[in-house]
Amino acid sequence: MRSPLAAETAPPAPAPAARRRARFAIAPARHAFRRRFFPDASAPEWSDWRWQTRNRIRTLAELERVFQLSDDERAAVMRRTSGLPVGITPYYASLMGREDPAEPLRRTHIPVGAELVTLPGEDDDPLGEEPDMVAPGLVHRYPDRVLFLVTNFCATYCRYCMRSRLVGSKGEHTFSVAQWEAALGYIEAHAEVRDVLISGGDPLTIADDKLDWLLGRLRRIGHVELIRIGTKVPLALPMRVTPALARVLGRHRPWLSLHATHPDELTPEATLALDRLADAGIPLGGQTVLLKGVNDDLAVMRALMHGLIKRRVRPYYLFQCDPIRGSGHFRTPVTTGLELIEGLRGHTSGYAVPHFALDAPGGGGKVALVPDAIVGREGEDLVVRNFAGALYRYPDPGGMLGAGKARR
Ligand code: SF4
């Protein structure tokens, strides 16, 4: 098997007909944005994911060329000297409000002063991943699952990232092959590992041939039954989902967890990317972080969940925002998430209702949070509340569930 280093050479150029088929459609709003802010970029360049990553908006001057920054945003960008960098693909920037600092997608990617404030309970590694790291980039916490961090590079940097201690830091690069090999060796030696979640950083920013090598290597480990990839690429850099990438993924059949934040991300370009993945036979699940002022509204959340379902992405998790350092302005009370789930459950298709969960700080793992449907007990009956708030008695002879529960 070729090593990924040997695979650095560019693949042969596609034949003209294949190149035409691979061309990525650009929505009219994106054409207008390109002409205004990137007039030197041709349409094929705009549709090239490597051009998009090379031309990410990263500095104050680049931000000011596109956005009318508030004083708070400008000061925050200037005061930032370390930690999570700024990085926004031109495509993703075109989805954001240029004049309104409160526009949801803009809030998730342009720093504000509150990001520089550490509140009690916040930490650089709130999930306590470092103590469970058994090899560089490999976290083994749950008995049969590992988290394999394969890169620290992302198309865009989300200000609430739970791995902001790691992503985009120390220069942007994929982890070394020696690190991958150490992690793969550990997985091979641990027959109890049946599920590998590949994350980072964003694994879909890795070149096709390297990804092909990595997935193939994992697929040949007999006890690895499930490979999952966590990514935001189909929404932040949809042109990365080329027919060639879809073929690589189709060959190795991983599941894909899509990090979706807001319905404004569900553009025609993102739809095409998700279609290519679904058509390649990749099971798609959605993961959303609950963020104050971004998606903590029932109409917004419902639109996002419905939009995902329409694109063959099954909403899977709604996460309470982790207490990462400087995340206070993003975090909602836990009740907000429960109310959103109550507002969805029973009011829309069950497939469109994600699990609400938080990651217990200090390495406690995921804890599912459910609205309380059990009201109490009356004799042999369990009293439950349905989605509309009405009470019902369910015959449950001999049961104890709900006994002694104060009825509210
Ligand atoms: S795409 Fe994921 S890993 Fe990258 S910055 Fe956003 S949340 Fe973090």
Can you tell me the CATH architecture of the largest domain?
Alpha-Beta Barrel
Radius of gyration: 23 Å
Whole-number tally of structural domains:
3
Poorly predicted regions? 1-21
| Share of helix, binned | 25-40%
Shape call: globular
CATH class of the largest domain: Alpha Beta
Q: Name every ligand kind in the structure.
A: iron/sulfur cluster
Largest sheet: 10 strands, mixed
Q: Work out the strand percent.
A: 15-25%
Element pattern in H and E = HHHHHHHHEEEHEHEHHEHEHEHEEEEE
CATH superfamily of the largest domain, by name, is Aldolase class I
Query: What structural category do the secondary elements indicate?
Result: alpha/beta
Q: What gap, in angstroms, lies between the N and C termini?
A: 64 Å
Kindly report the spatial arrangement of strands forming the biggest sheet.
Answer: 1-2-3-4-5-6-7-8-9-10
What's the total helix number?
Answer: 15
Indicate the mean pLDDT. 90
In the CATH hierarchy, the third-tier topology of the largest domain is known as TIM Barrel
Features:
alpha/beta, binds iron/sulfur cluster, 408 residues, TIM Barrel
Task: Describe what this molecule looks like in 3D.
With 408 residues, this protein is an alpha/beta fold. The chain folds into three domains: 87 residues, no CATH class; 240 residues, Alpha-Beta Barrel (TIM Barrel), CATH 3.20.20.70; 37 residues, no CATH class. 31% of the residues lie in helices and 16% in strands. It is built from 15 helices and 13 strands. A ten-stranded mixed β-sheet has the order 1-2-3-4-5-6-7-8-9-10. Helix 13 links the parallel strand 6 and strand 7. Helix 10 runs parallel beside helix 12. The N terminus is likely disordered. Bound molecules: iron/sulfur cluster. Iron/sulfur cluster binds next to loops.
